[in-house]
């Protein structure tokens, strides 16, 4: 191309030089002929003519000389200008090359000579002393992998298939090893379009390539990391998020772009939290901490977040980058690890570690609140035999079924744990009394004794149980566990399929209760219950006022058993309602008889247990008993203890209302021992308060008891209630209570509870 231009330039300058010369010759020739002709026309003599000829010749020389002078001067001036422009252009070109750190090369194809500028030699690592360079030198420097492509690109360009040569390849530098360069070049062609020269620049782009690779890696990291990433501009508008962000939050990229991170706020943190966070970002450029955010589905989750403020080289804030990890996964896996560490993998029950922790906490709590705590150690009898004969997987199945059966029997608040192998333990907190524990132990014994269906056959299994109680059988969890375990040995010694308390006496007590319970069923069936009566005296008039019906058990072998000994067993056996009802019918019928006999009695009191109240048929039974006996409701007084009255809440109140509607009188028994709410007391349809025996027995000596008795009487009076004092044993007690204004009294001073026939004798005597 350059050559063509140069050729064109030389052709045109020769033409114009010839043209100017031709014009000059033409003008000069015309001048000679024309001036000679004019001289001849003048007709001058020869000498004048000769003189004029000479003058004309001199004038011509002067004029053309002047013209030559100006022309030469003009040409020289232009050339100097062009040279200066060329020099400046060359200087600019060199500066540009140096500034751009580019190397120049010029390949004379015809001569196969390669020129390289110093920078170019520097890039390729070619010694400056080496003058002659050939193209093959250049090609050998290229990385073998890049040679074919570079060579092909060059050929294509030389063949005129491409406008420019633009190619990247790695070259080997003696000191640096391989590094990337970019080469750009353009061919100079002759008139036939044949490339005769190739001139180009080469640039070291290794840093640029490294930067690009880093960006590429960052891009891959951005998209592939499991941590959520969010980029905001300086105004906190989200401009980009990564895949993990979308997975964690549930939002798509389109849904968040242009919005602010406030859209993720969970509402869990107050303004102070965010203010403090931004203060730190502004102050130190970064913040990290736990923050609760909200997913698209509304779920709140914790994340560990790093926020970095990004600035440009001038310190101007440009972006915020937030990187966060979803901690719910970590927390969940921590919980899972924790779960595995504290649970038995087979039954999923708490393991030894967890039950020990819970036991110790429970012991501390029980000690603080001064309550008891029970532990039942369950050991399956001859479980090893099952494992050996049926195999471990059926053995596991048996353990699992046994665990489920026990779990079913436990109540809320109980903890069932598997200590290992065939050993289980149950921690009982709320109901840890001998009766409850032995009852639970029996039920577990029965549940285990029920056949197990394993692999198509029925397997029979029994368990031995050991029971220990806090505080009696141990001061801490470990001791309780150890003692429950040794109680298992006791149970096994008794022939397995058994249970034993760590304390011998408790085992006996539990056994007695067991027998009592089964005997009680028979007692009701065989009519062994008796109703005794205790008379009540009107302290002001000195007359008999009424009676209280109290149940007794006429045991065929043990004789008369008082209620305190068999009623707890009756409660456990679920017989309480039945007993109360029996007493009610008896008492109503007896009252009718005594009224018919003309004894001036006002009321017959019958005790009503919470169990009976819960059964729900108290009102109908009462109505029926009254009707059957033909007794007016006003003669019947139902007694509920203060504790039970308060325990039964609104349902109890409703029941009392309905009983009151019947016309029956209502009394609060053992008043002063419970925690009555005065408000409820005022609201309830109660007619009488019975001061508990505990306040009477130490009268008149005990001043606080007498103050209490006096206060209860005053309170009852102010609520228009009748007051009865229970357990009057001395005349002094009677006198004091009379003085305080107590209405009636009941106690051994007058009579012990007696069978109806005995009471009748007293009634007949008339005197009190
Ligand atoms: P309670 O209803 O407070 O009955 C009064 C208890 O005090 C009776 O005991 C009575 O014998 C006793 N007592 C009366 N005066 C004196 C005295 O001067 N000194 C002493 N030391 N004791 C005296 P009992 O008959 O043994 O009955 C005990 C508790 O059993 C009763 O207390 C009552 O809560 C319950 N009870 C008795 N019979 C029945 C019944 O048929 N149904 C229900 N639900 N509970 C009953
Ligand atoms: Mg009573
Ligand atoms: Mg009482």
TrEMBL record:
<dbReference type="Pfam" id="PF00990">
    <property type="entry name" value="GGDEF"/>
</dbReference>
<dbReference type="InterPro" id="IPR000014">
    <property type="entry name" value="PAS"/>
</dbReference>
<feature type="domain" description="GGDEF">
    <location>
        <begin position="371"/>
        <end position="504"/>
    </location>
</feature>
<dbReference type="InterPro" id="IPR001610">
    <property type="entry name" value="PAC"/>
</dbReference>
<dbReference type="InterPro" id="IPR000700">
    <property type="entry name" value="PAS-assoc_C"/>
</dbReference>
<dbReference type="InterPro" id="IPR013655">
    <property type="entry name" value="PAS_fold_3"/>
</dbReference>
<dbReference type="InterPro" id="IPR052155">
    <property type="entry name" value="Biofilm_reg_signaling"/>
</dbReference>
<dbReference type="InterPro" id="IPR029787">
    <property type="entry name" value="Nucleotide_cyclase"/>
</dbReference>
<dbReference type="Pfam" id="PF00563">
    <property type="entry name" value="EAL"/>
</dbReference>
<protein>
    <recommendedName>
        <fullName>Diguanylate cyclase/phosphodiesterase with PAS/PAC sensor(S)</fullName>
    </recommendedName>
</protein>
<dbReference type="InterPro" id="IPR001633">
    <property type="entry name" value="EAL_dom"/>
</dbReference>
<keyword id="KW-1133">Transmembrane helix</keyword>
<dbReference type="InterPro" id="IPR043128">
    <property type="entry name" value="Rev_trsase/Diguanyl_cyclase"/>
</dbReference>
<keyword id="KW-0472">Membrane</keyword>
<dbReference type="InterPro" id="IPR000160">
    <property type="entry name" value="GGDEF_dom"/>
</dbReference>
<dbReference type="InterPro" id="IPR035965">
    <property type="entry name" value="PAS-like_dom_sf"/>
</dbReference>
<keyword id="KW-0812">Transmembrane</keyword>
<feature type="transmembrane region" description="Helical">
    <location>
        <begin position="54"/>
        <end position="72"/>
    </location>
</feature>
<dbReference type="Pfam" id="PF13426">
    <property type="entry name" value="PAS_9"/>
</dbReference>
<feature type="domain" description="PAS">
    <location>
        <begin position="221"/>
        <end position="272"/>
    </location>
</feature>
<dbReference type="Pfam" id="PF08447">
    <property type="entry name" value="PAS_3"/>
</dbReference>
<feature type="domain" description="EAL">
    <location>
        <begin position="513"/>
        <end position="767"/>
    </location>
</feature>
<feature type="transmembrane region" description="Helical">
    <location>
        <begin position="12"/>
        <end position="34"/>
    </location>
</feature>
<dbReference type="InterPro" id="IPR035919">
    <property type="entry name" value="EAL_sf"/>
</dbReference>
<feature type="domain" description="PAC">
    <location>
        <begin position="165"/>
        <end position="217"/>
    </location>
</feature>
């Amino acid at each position: 191309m350059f050559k063509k231009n140069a050729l064109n330039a030389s052709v045109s300058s020769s033409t114009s030089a010839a043209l100017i010369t031709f014009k000059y010759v033409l003008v000069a020739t015309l001048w000679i002929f024309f001036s000679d002709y004019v001289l001849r026309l003048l007709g001058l003599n020869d000498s004048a003519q000769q003189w004029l000829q000479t003058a004309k010749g001199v004038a011509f020389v002067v004029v053309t000389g002047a013209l030559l002078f100006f022309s030469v001067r003009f040409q020289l001036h232009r050339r100097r200008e062009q040279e200066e422009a060329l020099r400046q252009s060359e200087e600019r070109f060199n500066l540009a090359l140096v500034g751009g750190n580019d190397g120049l090369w010029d390949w004379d194809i015809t001569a196969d000579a390669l020129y390289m500028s110093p920078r170019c030699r520097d890039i390729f690592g070619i010694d400056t002393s080496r003058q002659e360079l050939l193209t093959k030198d250049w090609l050998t420097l290229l990385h073998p992998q890049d040679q074919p492509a570079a060579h092909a690109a060059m050929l294509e360009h030389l063949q005129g298939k491409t406008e420019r040569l633009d190619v990247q390849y790695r070259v080997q530098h003696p000191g640096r090893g391989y590094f990337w360069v970019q080469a750009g070049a353009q061919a100079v062609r002759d008139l036939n379009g044949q490339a005769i020269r190739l001139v180009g620049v080469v640039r070291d782009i290794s840093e640029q390539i490294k930067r690009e690779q880093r960006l590429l890696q960052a891009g891959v990291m951005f998209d592939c990391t499991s941590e959520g990433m969010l980029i905001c501009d300086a105004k906190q508008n989200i401009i980009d998020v990564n895949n993990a962000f979308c997975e964690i939050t549930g939002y798509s990229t389109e849904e968040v772009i242009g919005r602010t991170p406030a859209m993720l706020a969970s509402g869990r943190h107050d303004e102070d939290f965010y203010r403090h966070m931004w203060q730190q970002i502004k102050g130190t450029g970064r913040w990290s901490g736990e923050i609760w955010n909200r997913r698209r589905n509304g779920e709140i989750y914790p994340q560990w977040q790093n926020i970095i403020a990004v600035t440009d080289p001038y310190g101007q804030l440009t972006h915020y980058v937030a990187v966060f990890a979803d901690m719910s996964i970590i927390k969940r896996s921590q919980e899972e690890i924790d779960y595995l560490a504290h649970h038995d993998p087979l039954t999923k029950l708490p393991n030894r570690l967890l039950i020990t922790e819970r036991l110790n906490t429970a012991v501390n709590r029980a000690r603080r609140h001064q309550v008891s705590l029970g532990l039942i150690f369950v050991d399956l009898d001859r479980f090893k035999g099952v494992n050996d004969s049926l195999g471990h997987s059926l053995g596991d199945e048996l353990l699992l079924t046994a665990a489920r059966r026990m779990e079913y029997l436990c109540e809320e608040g109980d903890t069932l744990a598997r200590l290992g192998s065939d050993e289980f333990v149950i921690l009982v907190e709320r109901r840890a009394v001998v009766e409850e524990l032995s009852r639970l132990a029996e039920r577990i014994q029965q549940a285990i004794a029920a056949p197990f269906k394993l692999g198509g056959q029925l397997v029979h299994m029994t368990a031995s149980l050991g029971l220990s109680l806090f505080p009696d059988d141990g001061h801490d969890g470990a001791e309780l566990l150890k003692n429950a375990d040794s109680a298992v040995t006791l149970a096994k010694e008794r022939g397995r399929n058994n249970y034993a308390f760590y304390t011998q006496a408790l085992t006996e007590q539990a056994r007695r209760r067991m027998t009592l319970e089964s005997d009680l069923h028979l007692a009701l069936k065989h009519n062994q219950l008796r109703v005794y009566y205790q008379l009540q005296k009107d302290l002001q008039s000195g007359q008999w006022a009424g009676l209280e019906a109290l149940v007794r058990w006429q045991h065929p072998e043990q004789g008369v058993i008082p209620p305190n000994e068999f009623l707890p067993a009756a409660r456990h056996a679920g017989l309480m309602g039945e007993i109360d009802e029996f007493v009610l019918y008896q008492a109503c019928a007896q009252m009718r008889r005594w009224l018919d006999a003309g004894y001036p009695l006002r009321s017959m009191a019958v005790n009503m247990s919470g169990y009976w109240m819960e059964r729900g048929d108290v009102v109908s039974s009462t109505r029926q008993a009254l009707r059957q006996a033909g007794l007016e409701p006003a003669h019947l007084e139902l007694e509920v203890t203060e504790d039970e009255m308060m325990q039964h809440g609104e349902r109890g109140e409703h029941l009392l209302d309905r009983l009151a509607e019947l016309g029956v009188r209502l009394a609060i028994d053992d008043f002063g021992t419970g925690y009555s709410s005065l408000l409820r007391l005022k609201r309830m349809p109660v007619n009488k308060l019975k001061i508990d025996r505990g306040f009477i027995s130490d009268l008149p000596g005990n001043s606080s008891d007498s103050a209490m008795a006096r206060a209860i009487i005053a309170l009852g009076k102010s609520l228009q209630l009748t007051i009865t004092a229970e357990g009057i044993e001395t005349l002094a007690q009677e006198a004091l209570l009379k003085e305080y204004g107590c209405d009636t009294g009941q106690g051994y001073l007058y009579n012990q509870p007696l069978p109806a026939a005995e009471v009748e004798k007293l009634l007949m005597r008339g005197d009190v």
